[in-house]
């Protein structure tokens, strides 16, 4: 594909930050395109946690990931964006006229500015790394959950100590017949309120334990052997395991674009500008002094980036726009 059309802003990444930035680009009258390597919008939430509740977004006491993404897509449609899925941007080149050529695995795109909202980049779940796990993976061993109902009246072991493991345990306690949470440390990394709720729930907590052995019949799990550092073992009867050990991420080609980096993050200033004029970044992919990686923070960074992209394209425009209540009358 050789798309000669010039866009005001091309957003690389169709997760929550990218979708909200798309909507806001429409608010500022910008012609916008989204490019995402996944086959659907919504990023990591849509890919891994559609049936998981999200708690840290203003105005939503809790919202299912898939519902949140659906609302974001509906909101982003206001901008009438061009959407390119299953496409990876491999390189970015700045022309003499200050516009950008984005070279992907499928062709080229042209844009006055770029906003990178690629989250943690390309990702894959950290595996359990236990002998024989391949026999059960995708059947009774899971690294993501697309439908909670598959665990109805089942015995489930959740592995991990972060927010995802704790949240899944709490959501499953009223669905599964038995929920056990195993973590290799005594302390959890999840939000304090969630850990307190976990400890007061019916979820059986096993710490500090690691998974030693999977026992099953064919591709159906029957038992799991967990072990402490002192060698003490325990056998748990299970039907399913959900592993939440985090993700292995990579920024891939982005690292070769000449952007100033801090390990796996792009450095930006208070305008969400990178060191390359005309390229902005927002969301979990960025870093700056005081940065907190939450969806709510990315949603706040998106309009900052878009407003300054608008000013970059048209220096006579206002960085501080009218409020949405002034636009929608």
Describe the structure.
The protein is of the alpha/beta class. The chain has two domains: 2-123 and 247-327, FAD/NAD(P)-binding domain, CATH 3.50.50.60; 127-243, FAD/NAD(P)-binding domain (3-Layer(bba) Sandwich), CATH 3.50.50. The chain contains eight helices and 22 strands. It has helices at 16-27, 43-48, 65-76, 133-136, 163-172, 192-199, 295-313, 324-327, and strands at residues 2-12, 32-35, 53-54, 63-64, 82-84, 89-94, 100-104, 108-116, 122-125, 141-142, 155-159, 178-182, 204-206, 210-217, 220-227, 233-237, 240-243, 247-250, 261-262, 265-267, 279-281, 286-287. The strands form six sheets. Strands 1, 2, 5, 6, 7, 8 and 21 form a seven-stranded mixed β-sheet that branches. Strands 10-17-11-12-13 form a five-stranded parallel β-sheet, with helices on one face. Strands 14-15-16 form a three-stranded antiparallel β-sheet. A hairpin with a 2-residue loop joins strand 19 and strand 20 (265-267).
Question: What name does the CATH topology of the largest domain carry?
Answer: FAD/NAD(P)-binding domain
Sheet/helix structural class: alpha/beta
Describe the main β-sheet briefly. Answer: 7 strands, mixed
SSE run: EHEHEEHEEEEEHEEHEHEEEEEEEEEEHH
Number of domains: 2
Rg calculated over all Cα atoms: 22 Å
What is the beta-strand fraction?
A: 25-35%
Question: Uncertain segments of ≥5 residues (pLDDT<50)?
Answer: none
CATH superfamily of the largest domain: FAD/NAD(P)-binding domain
How many distinct beta strands?
22
Number of helices: 8
Q: What is the level 1 CATH name of the largest domain?
A: Alpha Beta
Can you give the helix content as a percent range?
Answer: 10-25%
Mean residue pLDDT: 90
- In CATH, the architecture of the largest domain is 3-Layer(bba) Sandwich
End-to-end Cα distance, whole Å, is: 40 Å
Shape: elongated
């Amino acid at each position: 594909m050789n798309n000669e059309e010039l866009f005001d802003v091309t957003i690389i990444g169709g997760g929550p930050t990218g979708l909200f930035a798309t909507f806001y680009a429409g608010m500022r009258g910008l012609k916008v395109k989204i490019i995402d390597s996944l086959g659907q919008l919504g990023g990591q939430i849509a890919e891994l946690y559609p049936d998981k509740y999200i708690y840290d977004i203003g105005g939503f006491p809790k919202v299912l990931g898939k519902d949140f993404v659906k609302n974001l897509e509906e909101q982003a449609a206001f901008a009438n964006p061009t959407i390119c899925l299953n496409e990876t941007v491999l390189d970015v080149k700045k022309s003499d006229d200050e516009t950008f050529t984005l070279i992907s695995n499928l062709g080229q795109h042209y844009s006055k500015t770029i906003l990178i909202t690629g989250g943690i980049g390309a990702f894959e779940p950290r595996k359990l790394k236990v002998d024989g796990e391949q026999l059960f993976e995708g059947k009774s061993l899971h690294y993501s959950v697309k439908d909670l109902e598959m665990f109805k009246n089942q015995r489930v072991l959740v592995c991990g100590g972060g927010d995802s493991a704790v949240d899944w345990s709490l959501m499953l306690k009223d669905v599964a017949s038995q929920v056990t949470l195993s973590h290799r440390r005594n302390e959890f990394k999840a939000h304090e309120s969630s850990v307190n709720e976990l400890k007061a729930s019916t979820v059986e907590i096993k710490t500090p334990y690691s998974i030693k052995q999977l026992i099953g019949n064919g591709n159906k799990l029957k038992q799991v052997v967990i072990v402490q550092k002192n060698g003490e073992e325990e056998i748990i009867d299970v039907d399913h395991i959900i592993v939440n050990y985090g993700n292995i991420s990579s920024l891939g080609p982005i690292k070769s674009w000449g952007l100033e980096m801090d390990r796996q993050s792009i450095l930006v200033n208070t305008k969400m500008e990178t060191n390359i004029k005309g390229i902005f970044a927002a969301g979990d992919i960025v870093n700056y002094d005081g940065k907190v990686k939450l969806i709510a923070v990315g949603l706040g960074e998106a309009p900052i980036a878009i407003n300054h992209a608008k000013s970059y394209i048209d220096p006579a425009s206002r960085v501080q726009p009218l409020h949405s209540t002034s636009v929608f009358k």
